[in-house]
Amino acid sequence: AAAYLPWKPVGMLDFDSYARVLESIWGCGLIPAVNMDTGFVNLLTESQRLEVLHFASSLAQGRELVAGAYVGDLAGDCQAHYKAQFETIATAGAVPIVFQCTDLVRRPNPDILNVYRELGKLEIDYLAFELGAMFADFGAIYSMDLFAEIMEIPSLIGIKHSSLRRELEWQRLAIRDERRPDFKIYTGNDLAIDMIQWGSDYLLGLAAFFPEAFARRDRLWASSDRRFYELNDALQLLGGFAFRDPVPAYKHNAAMTLMLRGMIASDALPMHAPSRPSTDREFLAMVIDRIQMLVTD
């Protein structure tokens, strides 16, 4: 679950609420991912990203944690910045996930591949991230040829795919199954969260809204319990609503949902984050009630 980063109305990070968010994810058996798109990583300063990482690491106490390696606002060659962040993240006990940046995605494919290969030489297990442009203008979906070559890097253990397109993800799953079955494809398709039925894992922003419900859904699927479908449908209703255009505003719906659930103190947003109309809360409350009923069934 990509953890939502809560804010106070005065524009400050709300670490008390953040602790509840992270503990709820660990508590239901999922792994939190911090400094992700759901955590407004591109709107944080470098010092804030470090603060978030160290806070999450201090709470983890050996529990699994994933953290974004974001270098979008740092001047100079992105490869050197990624290496430095890998070491910082690994020292904090987390698995780094490479956030794309403009410097990376504008390079020719051989140069992009070389960045991932050089990171692989650090002998730190890591994840990659294909981020569709509907989420951020510094993201890109790679060609199938480039994806296949990146997947062969031994220390790269998985990739999150956020094109919001089933066909592209199915193609990646087919290559994975043929060439490297242990490699993880983490779906980032919040409009098709049932991709787990085709062999994807997930690292979803939507899972931040209600991690306990996702954990319940997973257990139902693992045990071939048909109640999986009803709960998955309810969660997908939430996803279809929250991830409508403009897609980046889904984070405001995440804040609204978590506040309605009593998990965070405020649904305030950082400066420059897109917002949703206040009327969204009525629909979200209805869906939350439906999901809660299915989770406690």
Architecture overview:
With 297 residues, the chain is an alpha/beta fold. Helix content is 45%, strand content 10%. It is built from eleven helices and seven strands. Strands 4-5-6-7 form a four-stranded parallel β-sheet, with helices on one face. A three-stranded parallel β-sheet has the order 1-2-3, covered by helices on one side. Strand 2, helix 3 and strand 3 form a beta-alpha-beta unit. The longest helix is centred in the C-terminal third of the chain and has 16 residues. It is globular. The mean pLDDT is 97.
Furnish the topology, listing elements before pairings.
Elements: H1 15-27, E1 33-34, H2 46-60, E2 66-69, H3 78-91, E3 95-98, H4 102-105, H5 109-120, E4 126-131, H6 144-151, E5 156-162, H7 166-179, E6 184-187, E7 201-202, H8 211-222, H9 227-242, H10 250-260, H11 280-295
Parallel strand pairs: 1-2, 2-3, 4-5, 5-6, 6-7
